[in-house]
Amino acid sequence: MDFDDERPQQQVTGVVIITLPPSDNPSFGKTITAFTLTNDVLPQSLTTQEPDQVLPTTRVVSSPPPSSQSPQLGFSFSGFFSENPRKLLGFLGVSLFALLLYSSCFSSTFVELKNSNDNDDDDKPQSFIFPLYHKLGAADLELKLGRFVDVVDKENLVVSINGGAMETKMVNKLVAANSVVMPVRGNVYPDGLYFTYMLLGNPQRHYFLDIDTGSDLTWIQCDAPCSSCAKGANPLYKPTKVNIVASGDSMCMEVQKNQKPQICETCQQCDYEIEYADRSSSLGVLAKDKLHLVTPNGSITNLDVVFGCAYDQQGILLNTLSKTDGILGLSKAKVSLPSQLASKGIINNVVGHCLATDVASGGYMFLGDDFVPNWGMSWVPMLGSPLIEFYHTQLVKINYGSSSLSLGAKDSDKARVVFDSGSSYTYFTKQSYAELVSSLSEVSELGFIQDASDPTLPVCWRAPFPIRTIMDVKKYFKTLTLQFGSKWWIISKKFHIPPEGYLIISFPVMQKKGNACLGILDGSNVHDGSTFILGDISLRGQLVVYDNEKQKIGWGPSGCGKPSRFKSLPFFEG
């Protein structure tokens, strides 16, 4: 093959590759990449002794030919490819495949990169990070997904005014630009609950709240007086008459919008009742008080927020409230705390949480978008519904290892998945759950015996060796993979649930060694029976973000020790 520089000059040859966005998500935009092959002779002032380059770029660039002073570097890509068309086609094919692979795996880098100078904008909505703690001493299974129901018996609220101050311990805070950072703790078993705190009232008092992306309204146990309340972590919230929200308030109409229309000309309060998927309930009235948030300069901002003054709790809530004071509603509803803050321009309506797998740590949650990573996240669109405020998206496939499981939904080709931080465990549809349990029976060949005497969860195994942690049995189980967007593996978004994301270790009474129990339950009687619910056990080890501004849900692996912008997190006192 002759690479002599005396041969006739080649014409510029260019190749442009245009990658169109997925049909189901046109917001991703298109990617344009141009390749140029040339031997054009440039002016002497621009020539170098570098060999020809094939440059992937977004604009056409011509590279100079090799200098005659360095004949040993005189290799020409254009000449080589013009005489080897098969190699040219092969090269372009490999390049196109690599580009598609990169864009499918890291598409968020094309659309999610932010301007690093955004933090310098004083008018930008702020972000707030809250701590998460595990609740000690309760092994009750939680399943929230609350909904408002009609209040059957309305009674006038009796408010006793008490201006006495209460001494409280403060919480250390680490403040950064446009954000508030507080520590996080938590685990799934035996505690089954992650919670944070709010500073509320005047004088300010802190209340521990179960974080729940499946609940609309934030509520606190309330002395109004209280007819059925658990002995929580802190004294009951005691409202004054000025705290009670009137029945004509816009937030009251939002809470009662799906209830039967009722005329009450003399009502001086806004009654509500919430019923949860685990058949527990909470009855109360809406109240308004000051929420205290720490600003970047360390000062405290006082904001009026509406929440529930809950004076009658029934069911499992009475057990789970032994170390908490209520629930922090984080759904898409207008009455939720993030929606209220966003309506005031305090934050962009973005919620994120990171639940640590390490029992010694809990994780963190944040409100606002300052702590959303610029890359490394998988994003899927939220499903919209005027009657459903849960965070849910569409599932197209699920695998246990390499074996496919049926979705078991009404539409066999797809199913809905709800991300619910208020549920301790994960729920599959009846058919999918049955197939999963059947697939897991293969561990019996390794000496695992199903232990029906263990009441911890419906399916538990006794191993042929002592079990202390999940790591002792992890290698005998396979990873679950939830697939979103497309059934084609290479272009789909995947949520991986390793064995530690669906197993717990129980220690039955009178046994010295633990059992491995399945933390995925039959959801045939939960919600509509055809929905998958991802609870805390499967959300651990992931930063999960609910972007209500862009209507999408994202996740990415994380140790959940601290947000990336902070060197360390402070710790809760006492």
UniProtKB/TrEMBL annotation:
Pfam families, alphabetized: TAXi_C, TAXi_N
Keywords noted in UniProt: Aspartyl protease, Hydrolase, Protease
Protein name, as recorded: Peptidase A1 domain-containing protein
Domain Peptidase A1 intervals: 194-556
GO biological process, one term: proteolysis
Keyword match Glycoprotein: no
Domain of life, source organism: Eukaryota
Gene3D superfamilies per record: Acid Proteases
Family of the protein in this entry: Belongs to the peptidase A1 family.
PANTHER family, sorted: ASPARTYL PROTEASE APCB1, ASPARTYL PROTEASES
Source taxonomy: Eukaryota, Viridiplantae, Streptophyta, Embryophyta, Tracheophyta
InterPro entries: Aspartic_peptidase_A1 (IPR001461), PEPTIDASE_A1 (IPR033121), Peptidase_aspartic_dom_sf (IPR021109), TAXi_C (IPR032799), TAXi_N (IPR032861)
Residues the record marks as active site: D212, D420
Entry GO MF terms: aspartic-type endopeptidase activity
Protease recorded as keyword: yes
Species: Gossypium klotzschianum
